[in-house]
Give the backbone structure.
Amino acid sequence: MSGFDYAARMDQARRELTGSDIDVLLVSVGSDLPYLTGYEAMPLERLTIAVVPREGDPVLVVPELEAPRVDRVPGVFTVQPWGETEDVIEIVAGLVGGAGKAMIGDQTWSVFLLELQRALPHTAFRSARPLTEALRVIKEPAEIELLRRAGASADVVAGLLAQHTFAGKAEAVVSREVSEMLEANGTDVAEFAIVASGPNGASPHHEPGERVIGEGDGIVIDFGGTVGGYGSDTTRNFHVGEPSARYMEVHEVVRAAQKAAIVTARPGVAAQDVDRAARRVITDSGYSEFFIHRTGHGIGLDTHEDPYIVEGNGQVLQPGMAFSIEPGVYLPGEFGVRIEDIVVCTENGVDRMNRSSRRIAVVG
Amino acid sequence: MSGFDYAARMDQARRELTGSDIDVLLVSVGSDLPYLTGYEAMPLERLTIAVVPREGDPVLVVPELEAPRVDRVPGVFTVQPWGETEDVIEIVAGLVGGAGKAMIGDQTWSVFLLELQRALPHTAFRSARPLTEALRVIKEPAEIELLRRAGASADVVAGLLAQHTFAGKAEAVVSREVSEMLEANGTDVAEFAIVASGPNGASPHHEPGERVIGEGDGIVIDFGGTVGGYGSDTTRNFHVGEPSARYMEVHEVVRAAQKAAIVTARPGVAAQDVDRAARRVITDSGYSEFFIHRTGHGIGLDTHEDPYIVEGNGQVLQPGMAFSIEPGVYLPGEFGVRIEDIVVCTENGVDRMNRSSRRIAVVG
């Protein structure tokens, strides 16, 4: 999280405010705050919040006992610690003052929004997403480099997994192994490792559990972690022993759908058109009702962020946008298949952050 | 998270609603949902929320792709999946209907509260904490048993750390070692391991970093993790080589303060009186300005929850309340000392969940 020009980002945020009817931006837990300041709020009951007025200096209101954690970035913000017996809402309300309209970060806890609404009855609150998205959705070269390193680390693990032994192990054990592999191969922090075997593969966000993997199981492994705060997120499919014709057919459909989406993604194309490209292949193959999620999501400091690759999102892709392409087919009671890569939109297509084999890996 | 009587808890929540002027309880991310239903919402941009009306059946609104993760608990709630292109706010607003007053879980993302407020302009929202706290603050015997197991695991690690080698290691490396020790000794999931060495010890929520621990350093280690979802949280102090007289004096002050708070805590005493007992010892020793945080926090499914042991909290302790007692003294530029244990209020005092030595551990 170092090496970024936070002063420039904060200036851009304030330019966005100047061009709007919003008087103040409030940013608490989540990735907007580290994006703007380099500081990540602890997601706890003591409020940390940056008050960014259209005019005047941004102030980071932070619990006194956490103030020593804050790396001061000169010229970006001042720090206002609050003590354990002070009323932080009163402090923030004083800084917000007579603002008619305030934007507040999406992940801010509702309890704080309710208290601010009570303390500031004449202030209208709305989501900060339009503003913060405008800043965050186009990645800087240094951000893309971190996404690339995170993706390369995940690719190494995908390669290792193709040689790995699964039979006889519980999903939760394999999940732990995947996380360890990530951190041993260039990822700073392993964030998630879905391991969904056999019929559990039909649950896209399956929680890896006690099910022991055995002969004949398909296994969906969806994993990622961060490098310098920026994430990876890739999904590959493994099979203990030779897969059935049906499994191979479904995998091929998903692979074709993923490829169709990837070649569709380029500047000027709407996000939903990428979803449609993947969905068309799956629909034409007769599996439309089993592709039960969108085709992808943006990625950066958050694993899920704008742009969302989903029907109804007319947002036009631009160079520097980073997102997943991850169609899947989920057959309840049988198995699931998903193939996922991160791509970054370039001038004339996409740059893949993941280059590991997308074939079914037959494993032991 | 299994083995609890979710039907009884949900019944109690609805009895609380019946005795109030609140029409509906809305519960999303955070621990209120798993407390009531056994299901933990994924903290992502797709809304998961339980709608618990005063009359009628509770409904868990969940993203379609996550519906297979939900363990149905018969008689507790029904599941309503929402598809990727559906408007979940419209669905929730339909379930809330004409509610005049709604309570919403504290950690619910503000973006969803703002959207619900827009969709339900005649509904007044307030924090659910008074209701959920009433349920969660008194621990059931099975919850206390999990707190006890989590504490015992942490105690094993405290003992191992007293024999551990620190000199020459970066704080972040030791932090990783502490987490591994926890998971190797009975903790399901290691949640945090603050390792604050030398002058970093004066930062209570220090982020373990690249600082290499060396001779003459005091080290504050504050760590914990969960067993069955219930947490541990304990702090001990280590010193590479023999500590100075000043360090020993400060440690003795903190130890006396912690003891004073522990013997004060019992049913009928206000939470703030426990804080005062610790603070008085530190104040009498001349260090009052260096004890910059409250004396403790409740613990359960959340590492920080009610009751907070802080000046201004007149809440009266009752048997079954679980909380930390953790005074500290932080000398900027020098070192810090904190001693922390979890206790559970009993009929006539407290039951300690942590029993490892509270002495300074002189280490290499």
Remarks:
- Chain B has two domains: 6-136, 141-363.
- Chain B has nine helices and 18 strands.
- Chain B touches chain A through 43 residues (CB under 8 Å).
- Chain B has a mean pLDDT of 96.
